[in-house]
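Incident review: delayed structure delivery

Summary: a single-chain prediction request sat in the queue longer than the usual turnaround. Root cause was a stuck worker, restarted by the on-call engineer. No data loss occurred. The affected request and its eventual output are reproduced below so the record is complete for anyone auditing the incident later.

Affected input:
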Amino acid sequence: MGLGRGKDDYKLAATSEKPTSKKAKKEKGKRDMEELKKEVDLDDHKLTLDELHRKYGTDLARGLSNARAKEILLRDGPNALTPPPTTPEWVKFCKQAKSSKIMDSFKNLVPQQALVLRDGEKKSINAEEVVVGDLVEVKGGDRIPADLRVISAHGCKVDNSSLTGESEPQSRTPDFSNDNPLETRNIAFFSTNCVEGTARGVVINTGDHTVMGRIATLASSLDGGKTPIAKEIEHFIHIITGVAVFLGVSFFVLSLILGYGWLEAHLLVMKGAPERILDRCSTILLNGKEQNLDDELKDAFQNAYVELGGLGERVLGFCHFSLPDDQFPEGFAFDTEEVNFPTENLCFIGLMNRILIFGLFAETALAAFLSYCPGMDIALRMYPLKPCWWFCAFPYSLLIFLYDEARRYILRRNPGGWVEQETYY
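Output delivered after worker restart:
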């Protein structure tokens, strides 16, 4: 048999037309995905050897010529899986994205060498250089370099477990045995192993057009959905963010209405151990008014400090002092080495519990778990916070519970309404 015209009308699975816009690229991607989701459209297993020769232009005794193989390689590209688009490193750093390892595992499936017959001579070439129409020989222990239409075999068996899940080796013969290309015995698939015997076949698909290539493309193109707990957390974050922004803007506008301006003077603020702070103070702030710090107030401070310390609370003392505008104008250079500002006769503001400082934020996050997570008794045993700390979150838990129950009630009474469209359910 001589060389024929070849498969000049061979087409790639993805169209070769170059999209001219983002919209065209998106539509092209959708069409490609739909094609990949369809059943494998393959009829080479039904062809006779003469029909196979006419379709691929392959001399079944001598194989392709080197010139013809180079033409097909330029037309179809190398016999390798196309990696998915990579994310820039700075985007990965900002988003802390998890890079997919799917394509890396499929790359390892490509064998290093393949034995082909070209111009009547056997030669070992890189598997990426195998082209459609090549005559390939495999033996026991080899990995199939591409989808092959078997034309001769001697006791050949392949391991299809990586593709179809069949645990037993499957025999391969030149005879057509099933209409389904995945079940017929005269097709050997890319990435499967030849476990025994020898076989010779014509390459009918390479790279992304192989059955395994279709699976790899589908696996790397699927977007993972969010889990229910991820949706709950995201929804909770949206609520807290909205409340925080609303309160921040409201207080800012309120301060402007009340006449507060921008920076008008310097304010000295000091924090530290309560007894050290009190030693530097001569006045105390009570009910918004500054009063002289007498012995009675010092005793009251000492009692409160000892009581909180006995409960294991970390307590800090705070004081401040308004610096005069004439002595400390805007741009005044403060020096902490040679102190040039007052550190005595300050005004004691009071004691502050560290839990109260961060409670509005930390305990609000715990509120979600108190309201929705089962097994909170286990959580309490693993992380035994004081009851008063857990009760800090109770008002927020109650608000979230009432909001969510109201939303669920509306969804039950009016399914498909605006509430369902505006929420994550």
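Verification: The longest helix spans residues 228-257.
Action items: add queue-age alerting; document worker restart procedure.
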